[in-house]
Specification:
The chain contains 11 helices and 8 strands. The chain is α/β, with parallel strands linked by helices. It binds 2-phosphoglycolic acid.
């Protein structure tokens, strides 16, 4: 078992509905026991309208629930935004920031993403901070350059908090929702690079930080990925919508 406790987080994206969620929560409650929870930290991130439902169904378990996004500003006239203070008020413990779908489809940039992380941390939320290269960037052989740039603004934020409260998710954009996962070796190479880069940028606890992998993780490929020395769990999209798949991935994280 690794020194860093693995984290498996389900990113439901814009999927779900009251009944479908109930089915999923029931499945998770039935299969995830205390023993598994002692080995793996678990988190589900439903869409905003269902956070209350997650609280009701998971509040008495050790499975945490979190948001997929948070505003970069404190409060005020920002139609459609949800603040860190509101999430804190609701009892939410986590938020994802900087997911590639928000970077590419909604134009979120590193500065905004880092501010989201800062404001979330100030409101006692823990943060999953996503980074990753596109297919074009990988093919042009500039993956490390792209990642270094994404990490640069985040590094002081990471340095200012504890290893438990900030997790990096490496998600190669070409692997998200495509069924084409990075190989364990490809992912390991990048995770090691991220860890080294964090250290070089002054993050003293770079060796304690969890770096999770995301991009077409399934129960069938999870163990090979999680067995890599620098892969500390996963951020799971499609497979987190199916209880058996998600539980299979959690079990793999306990073994990895
Ligand atoms: P996927 O998504 O598992 O469906 O590839 C991962 C993510 O976007 O977080």
């Amino acid at each position: 078992m690794k020194a860093r406790k693995p984290l498996v987080a389900g990113n439901w994206k814009m999927n779900g509905g009251t009944l479908a969620n109930e089915h999923l929560f029931t499945g998770l409650r039935a299969s995830i026991d205390r023993h598994l929870m002692s080995q793996v930290e678990l988190l589900v991130c439903p869409p905003f309208p269902y956070l209350g439902q997650a609280a009701a169904w998971l509040g008495d378990t050790d499975i945490a629930w979190g948001a997929q996004n948070v505003a970069s500003l404190e409060s005020g006239a920002f139609t459609g935004e949800v603040s860190a203070a509101m999430l804190e008020d609701l009892g939410c413990k986590w938020t994802i920031v900087g997911h590639s779908e928000r970077r590419t489809l909604l134009g979120e940039e590193d500065e905004t993403i880092a501010r989201k992380a800062e404001i979330a941390l100030a409101h006692k939320l823990s943060v999953i901070y996503c980074i990753g290269e596109t297919l074009d960037e990988r093919e042009r052989d500039i993956t490390e350059e792209v990642l270094r740039q994404q990490i640069e603004r985040a590094a002081p934020v990471i340095a200012g908090t504890t290893a438990e409260r900030m997790v990096i998710a490496y998600e190669p954009v070409w692997a998200i929702g495509t069924g084409r996962s990075a190989t364990p070796e490809q992912a390991q190479t990048v995770h090691e690079f991220i860890r080294t880069t964090l250290g070089a940028m002054g993050v003293q606890h770079a060796r304690q930080i969890r770096i999770v992998y995301g991009g077409s993780v399934k129960a069938a490929n999870a163990l090979a990925l999680f067995s890599m020395p620098d892969i500390d769990g996963g951020l799971i999209g499609g497979a987190s919508l199916v209880a058996d798949e998600f539980v299979g991935i959690c079990r793999a994280a306990a073994l990895g």
